[in-house]
Each structure stands twice: as structure tokens, then as C-alpha cells.
Amino acid sequence: MSRVVVTGRVPDAAIEKLRAEHEVNAWTAPESIGREELLRRVAGADAVVSLLTERIDGELLDAAGPQLKVVANVAVGYDNIDVPACTQRGVVATNTPGVLTDATADIAMGLVLMATRRLGEGERLIRSGQAWKWGMFFLLGSSLQGKTLGVVGMGGIGQATARRAKAFGMEIVYQSRSELDPGIAADLGARRLDLDELLAVSDVVSLHCPYGPATHHLIGAEQLTAMKSSAYLVNTARGPIVDEAALASALREGQIAGAGLDVYEHEPRVHPALLELENVVLLPHLGSATVETRTAMAMLAADNTLAVLGGARPPAPIN
Ligand code: DGY
């Protein structure tokens, strides 16, 4: 029997699955586990099931000890994990791709609609108790039909967002390290562009690339200036892909029309300038937040853990 430490609350089904084979020590309080407590708890663990709010670095791996075999992140993004540090110590790192694709694409499309149709502004107006009445020019947004969606990062979530946008009558362009499978590209009618071209032609730019040194501030002042003044930016990937101060200033100055964000540069802190603006929709990292999706993520993390502890290749290895 191995010792599994779970760093935060996850659906019971995953804990039961792990407990059927191993000793499980799970953090169950609603608030995040503190760093000190985390370092204390992982000592002697064979497996760590981690949430994206916990930093898994050399210090933590050393605190766990040389018997540690696997770090199973309950997320598709793994910028919270120092993967080279895991590899160096012979620790397998895993993530949860696939199972949150549709839920995240739903939120991306939701943000596209909220931003372009000014749904947040409308909701806030009603709740404020202010007088309002239907008017020809009241809270006009912009239509999606015939407009262009620029997808940055055309992996599973980017493709799922493009499929939704296509159903709303949008044209699809994308920027990605590799060319789409020709069948999928034809299905979506998607054209591959470089980032500059994509920014210049898109009416909505939606970010779906992973975060790392290569994508830090991928969208900054220069890129925002390159966008149409009528365009919108949507980010459901990772906050630091966007220079938030530059975005706030572009929104304030009307360099772009609006934005929809589910993730933040210094999450959970939101840049105070964004809070002052009407033309940005702000969600609290809800991309994968459905009961079904969170359960599937936790079960895949449990499967990853059990596979490594059992000496098998996990379903979703990173390294
Ligand atoms: C992920 O899995 O990376 C998501 O951001 C979680 O919502």
C-alpha cells in the first residue's frame, strides 16, 4: 500500500477510487492548504495529487522525499508544476487533458457572447435599480454572424471553441505551432495565420495556448494596438499570457472594444484598473467548473496516480 497525499478538495469518487488501493491523506478544508502544511504533509508520500493552486517545485519534491513516484495534477494546465524538477528526480508528472475541453470551450463562447452583446453591463444595470427602457440605441453590441474568430493555440479547447463559433456564423482563423489535420481544418473552414496577421483580421481573439516562458505576455501593448478597435479579446487559458496593465489601458483608451476574462495575471487578484471598466467581463476561473467535468478530471488524476503506483504507463503523462 502506497501513501497518496491529495492537496485540496476533489470529488469523493476519486478519493474512494484511490482509497480502495492505497492510504490517502486528503486536505478537505474549504480554504487552500498553506505552503508550510503542504510541505509537512507530503513528507514520505509516494504520490501527490495536486490542484493548480499549489506550486509543485524542487522544494516540495525534496520535502516529499526520494520515494515519490508521481505528481498528478487535477488540471490540463500544469504551469504550477516544475516539470524538469520532476524529471530530474524520476517523478512522473501527469495532467487531465480532454475531459475539460467542452466545458472550457463553453465558457470561452459564453465570454464571447457576454462581451460582444454587453450582457454583464445589462445585468449590472438591472441589479443597480436604475431606470431603463427599450431603446433603439440602448446597450448596442456587435453581431457574430460573418465576423472572424482568431484562435491562438489550436489544441482541443481551441478547436472546440472554433466549432461553437462556427455554429454562430463566424469565420475561423488560427495561430498554432502546427498545422491542423486537413480534415478538421476543412470542417471548420479554418485558415492558419501568423499571430500578427491573426490580430489584424480578427473581430474576436480567443486565447487557448499553454502558459510558459514562450507565451508570457504574448498579448501586450503592441499586440493590442495591432487589433481592430472594434475587436474583443477573450482569455480562458492562463492569466499571464496577457499583460493585464496593457489590456486595461487598451480597454480604457478604446484601442479594442472589449474583453472577456476567466483567468488573471496574478490570480486570484484582478488588476484594479480592470474592475473600473464596463467593457470587460470578469469571471472567477470557471472554465472547467461543472460537476461532471470536475468529477472526470479528478477520476483521470486518480487513474494517472494508480497507473504509476502500479508500475504502468499513466493515461496522461507530461514528462
Ligand atoms: C485547467 O485544467 O488547466 C483549468 O484551468 C482548470 O479549470
UniProtKB/TrEMBL annotation:
Residues 4-319 form the D-isomer specific 2-hydroxyacid dehydrogenase catalytic domain. The keyword Isomerase does not apply. It comes from the Bacteria. Belongs to the D-isomer specific 2-hydroxyacid dehydrogenase family. Keywords: NAD, Oxidoreductase. This is Glyoxylate reductase. Residues 109-287 form the D-isomer specific 2-hydroxyacid dehydrogenase NAD-binding domain. GO terms for molecular function: glyoxylate reductase (NADPH) activity; hydroxypyruvate reductase [NAD(P)H] activity; NAD binding. PANTHER family: 2-HYDROXYACID DEHYDROGENASE-RELATED, GLYOXYLATE REDUCTASE 1. GO terms for cellular component: cytosol. Pfam families: 2-Hacid_dh, 2-Hacid_dh_C. PROSITE patterns: D_2_HYDROXYACID_DH_2 (PS00670), D_2_HYDROXYACID_DH_3 (PS00671). It comes from Sinomonas humi.
